[in-house]
Amino acid sequence: MESCINDFTNLDENFTILATTPTGFEKSALDEIKAKVPVVSHCLSQGKIFFQTSKECMTTLHSLKSVDNLYVVVKYIPNYTYNEEKEKALDDLKKIPYTLPWSEVADFWRLNQLHCKKKVRQFHKTPEEAAEDYEQSNRDQVQDIKGTEEPEKCDDAETPAKRAKLDDILFRVSATRVGKKQSILSQEAEHAFGGELNDHTQWNFDLSNYNFEVNLVLGVDSVLVSTSLTSSSLHRRNITHFGITTLRGTIAYNLARLCKIKTGDIVLDPMCGTGSISIEAASDWKDAFHIAADNFLPAIERTRNNVNYLNKAANQFPVDVIHWDVTNLPWKANSIDVVVTDMPFGKRMGSTKDNRKLYPAALAELARVARVKSGRACFLTRDKRSMSAALQSMKQWWKTKDSFYINIGGLKALVYVLQRSEEIYVKPEEVEQ
Q1: Which residue in 406, 420, 421, 343 sits closest to 377, CA to CA?
Q2: 215-251 pLDDT, tens per residue?
């Protein structure tokens, strides 16, 4: 990993970005990054992508849809040895802030502020005030789509200390300890590192209403210092009307990306919920036809509200919303190019008993409408047993290209990437006749 990580020096040199993504989607996220950002080198870790790039890509970085959070690596120390005595280990850690180029990092922070969405502060506010802040955040998002909002520009000054005061840096240090080999706790590391950083830079600190976050990762045999480029997770977008199982935007986007959508494709989500998948697909592949559908009327209403709200700015999200039954679709055979959907897990929605009937019936109907040979599908489910049984019964029409686990809020779920075979689907009753 050392070969693809450069310590930060200044804005004119290449720097290393750390992007986080839901575990399991690292390759999909890297595919988007390489397609949109000039990448010098890269490496993958569990739920993380490290890549080197330059300041010219700042706007593009914040428009990535497959990642949750972005950080710039300030310092990576491999082969780090933690002293067994806590006091000496803390003393070693306290020396690190004095070796880092904080004035250059502050310049980078200033540049990033022009592209970073503001954090919505809800501390010590009534529910009504918090709701108003959330609505204002959504209105700002619509303004971003219109492209009419001018970014705020920061003042400049002669010295790093003056620049820091003018920029009103309020920092905090967040530490994460990997394993238990270290002799110091994460809270102790935050206090020690943050105190020395405050003494060295004279920046003010605020543990709640901060705008500059320093992240300290205490690895088993390494130390990583980085600063956050995102004030909140990038998956918080597009959805204003939520259901009990609303899919995160980053997961929805990665599912759609796995199907390699092309211009002119008809992309279908037959169990859309709140429409996350169709909205995310339409945000990046605007030259395809996106259809969101569900058999549950409240889900259809939420999806329509989400699409209509986003399209207040302009028709940026071309999604049609339809009410239908996935086991009896109003489409002719061999007409759908891509199917992407989040199947009922059988936990909050439905049951595993229902899934044993729903999954094979849905796969059969989707095999009928999917284009022979070229049709692609991506399914997300946690009910592995029902899905495996359904795929076994439908192996003549659906071929599994890939399957892997992802992490959804601490739960393991399975992603299936399927390809429609050359076999023409014939309903069982038609065969009997």
Answers
A1: 420
A2: 999 999 999 999 999 989 999 999 999 988 789 999 9
Half-sphere exposure of 289 (CA within 13 A, CB side): 6
3-state secondary structure 218-229: ECCCCEEEEEEC
Specify which residues 49 forms β-bridges with. Answer: 19, 44
C-alpha span between 154 and 51 (Å, rounded): 27
Kindly state the helix (H) or strand (E) to which residue 35 belongs, with its residue range.
helix 26-36
Residue 350: what pLDDT? Answer: 61
What's residue 244's pLDDT?
Answer: 81
Q: What is the pLDDT of residues 90-115, one digit of tens each?
A: 999 999 999 999 999 999 999 998 88
pLDDT of the residue at 136 = 54
The pair of structure tokens assigned to 275 is 């429409």
Backbone angles phi, psi at 283, to 5 degrees: -70, -25
Using an 8 Å Cβ cutoff, are 183 and 85 in contact? yes
Whole-model pTM?
0.85
Q: Kindly state the tokens that stand for 187.
A: 């809270």
The C-alpha atoms of residue 46 and residue 23 are separated, in whole angstroms, by 6
What pLDDT score was predicted for residue 35?
95
| Backbone torsions φ then ψ of 206, nearest 5 degrees | -150, 120
DSSP letters of 313-326? TSS---EEEEE-BT
Dist. CA 226–CA 3, nearest whole Å: 17
SS3 183: coil
Bridge partners (DSSP) listed for residue 218: 177, 223
Instruction: Give 315's contacts (C-beta < 8 A, 6+ positions apart).
Output: none
Contact assessment for residue 173 and residue 190, using Cβ atoms and an 8 Å cutoff:
yes
How wide is the angle at C-alpha 38 spanned by C-alphas 36 and 39, nearest 5°? 110
Residue type, 93: L
Nearest alpha-carbon partner for 290 in 263, 250, 325, 324: 263
What is the pLDDT at residue 126?
46
Provide the pLDDT for residue 224.
Answer: 97
Under 8 Å CB-to-CB from 55, ≥6 apart: which residues?
A: 11, 12, 15, 108, 111
The list of the chain residues with pLDDT below 50 reads 120-131, 134, 142-166, 431-433
- CA dist., res. 119 & res. 335, Å (int): 44
Contact criterion met (CB below 8 Å) for 359 and 343: yes
| pLDDT (0 to 100) of residue 140 | 52
